[in-house]
């Protein structure tokens, strides 16, 4: 293992790529601590200290920004607008035929889709930065802001030009993060956007674990570490699991050359949806609490019954009803997203076009029906697995009193493991090209 790591740094090209990636990661983390214009940095730190250990409404976005959201930094929005824009463009392929046509055109069409994603990212950056500044001005950014007067004075200037400058700064920060991610993809190692998300989540691991050590003691801290290692091993096992459907291609003569005749397989992963269903379910469950937050009554008046019910049942993740709804939404969104991203009829048509067939299954519609049957059966354990992993932070919230973004569970562990595996595979393939020996034997 140590020899493999030494080979990485002895390879000039690979060493430059890793160095370039680490340099951009350092700049990304630096921007997460630089406050936006007209933000009272002292009051923000006071509110963060007063709300440590509590789970607020914006914890998911704060997780993906590496804690920059609640610090109101220039990178406050993080990579979340780009993730949202990418998901929206991918879903629009089903609704808008032009998007699906561009996707099938190859590299040129996908370049157009990437450009649309960039434009939508900037638009979402403007919308989300405006919402964030409005919430910060109202003093509702932190869960316990009522007991801390500093949380109502986070922004020092409420004039229109100050708000406009803050919106422009945060939106420009989102555009800069998007550009840095594309630079890492082109000149660094791994997928740039995934690496930046990985960095944002990993940066919060030490603080979350140390908070458990301080509040629950060293024995609980060791128990959490051991539990995290077990969960990580199980996640790696499931993420690498796949159902391989054998495919044979008939031989065909084109001129004097023979094509086909080889055997291959269609890999159907147990978790084909990745972390997207967890993000969908979290965002959907945040909507009722967000609506209830903006419908609080005037001082001295009782809130409406529906606002009280939402606050009691859907505000925090340790509520049993919240857990059940969260689990069911993840299962439903998993089937929905897999149905969008994997089209059995399209795969069957491509196989028939190039002379491929599944042994024992006729080409055409029977192949599509068989693929749909296998996909439905494989997606069931995958969706249950996603739901159980997503419930780990909520269970930890009740057992250890931890933050809802408990490091060893939910979206965080799925992204950490997924990005880590893909990056190691890229490093391994580049080492094999130069040394005929990979990172791991």
Describe the fold and architecture.
- The protein is mostly helical and 441 residues long.
- It has 17 helices and 5 strands.
- It has helices spanning 2-10, 12-31, 41-50, 59-64, 80-95, 97-104, 107-138, 160-187, 192-202, 205-216, 218-240, 276-293, 305-313, 320-341, 344-353, 365-399, 410-435; strands at 242-249, 252-254, 257-259, 263-269, 356-357.
- The chain has a 3-stranded antiparallel beta sheet with strand order 4-1-5. A two-stranded antiparallel sheet has the order 2-3.
- α7 (107-138) packs antiparallel against α8 (160-187), α12 (276-293) packs antiparallel against α13 and α12 (276-293) packs across α14.
- The N and C termini lie close together (9 Å).
- The model has no long low-confidence stretch (mean pLDDT 80).
User: Uncertain runs with pLDDT below 50, 5 residues or more?
Assistant: none
- Number of helices in the DSSP assignment: 17
Order of strands in the sheet with most strands: 4-1-5
Please count the beta strands (DSSP E, at least 2 residues each). Answer: 5
Give the biggest beta sheet.
3 strands, antiparallel
Derived structural class: mainly alpha
Q: Which overall shape is indicated by the principal axes computed on the Cα atoms?
A: globular
Taken as a percent bin, the fraction of beta residues is 5-15%
Rg, alpha carbons = 24 Å
- Helix/strand order, N-terminal first: HHHHHHHHHHHEEEEHHHHEHH
Mean pLDDT over the full residue set: 80
Q: How helical, in percent, are the residues?
A: 55-70%
Beginning-to-end CA distance, first to last residue: 9 Å
């Amino acid at each position: 293992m140590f020899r493999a790591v030494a080979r990485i740094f002895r390879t000039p090209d690979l060493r430059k790529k890793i160095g370039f990636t680490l340099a951009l990661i350092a700049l990304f983390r630096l921007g997460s601590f630089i406050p936006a214009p007209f933000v009272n940095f002292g009051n923000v730190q006071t509110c963060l200290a007063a709300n440590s250990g509590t789970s607020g409404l914006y914890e998911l976005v704060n997780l993906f920004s590496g804690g920059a959201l609640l610090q109101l930094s220039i990178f406050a929005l993080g990579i979340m607008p780009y993730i949202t824009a990418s998901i929206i463009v991918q879903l629009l392929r089903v609704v808008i035929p032009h998007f699906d046509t561009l996707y099938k055109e190859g590299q040129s069409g996908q370049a157009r889709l990437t450009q649309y994603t960039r434009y939508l990212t900037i638009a979402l950056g403007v919308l989300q930065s405006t919402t964030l500044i409005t919430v910060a001005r109202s003093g509702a950014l932190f869960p316990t802001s009522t007991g801390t007067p500093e949380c109502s004075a986070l922004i020092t200037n409420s004039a229109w030009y100050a708000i406009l400058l803050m919106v422009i700064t945060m939106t420009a920060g989102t555009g800069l993060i998007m550009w840095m991610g594309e630079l890492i993809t082109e000149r660094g190692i791994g997928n740039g956007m995934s690496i930046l998300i990985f960095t944002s989540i990993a940066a919060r691991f030490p603080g979350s674990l140390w908070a458990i050590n301080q509040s629950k003691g060293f024995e609980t801290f060791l128990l959490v570490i051991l539990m995290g290692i077990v969960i990580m091993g199980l996640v790696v096992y499931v993420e690498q699991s796949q159902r391989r459907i054998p495919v044979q291609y008939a031989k065909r003569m084109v001129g004097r050359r023979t094509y086909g005749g080889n055997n291959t397989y269609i890999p159907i992963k147990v978790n084909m949806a990745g972390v997207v269903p967890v993000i969908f379910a979290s965002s959907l469950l945040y909507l009722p609490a967000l609506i209830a937050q903006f419908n609080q009554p005037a001082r001295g008046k009782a809130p409406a019954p529906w606002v009280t019910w939402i606050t009691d049942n859907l505000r925090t993740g340790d509520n049993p009803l919240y857990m059940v709804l969260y689990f069911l939404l993840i299962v439903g969104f998993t089937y929905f997203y897999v149905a969008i991203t994997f089209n059995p009829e399209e795969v069957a048509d491509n196989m028939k076009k190039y002379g491929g067939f599944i042994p024992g299954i006729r080409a055409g519609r029977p192949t599509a029906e068989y693929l749909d049957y296998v996909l439905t059966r494989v997606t069931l354990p995958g969706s249950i697995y996603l739901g159980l992993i997503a419930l780990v932070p909520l269970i930890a919230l009740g057992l250890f009193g931890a933050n809802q973004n408990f490091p060893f569970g939910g979206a965080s562990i799925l992204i950490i493991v997924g990005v880590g595996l893909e990056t190691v595979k890229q490093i391994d393939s580049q080492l094999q090209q130069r040394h005929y020996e990979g990172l791991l034997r």
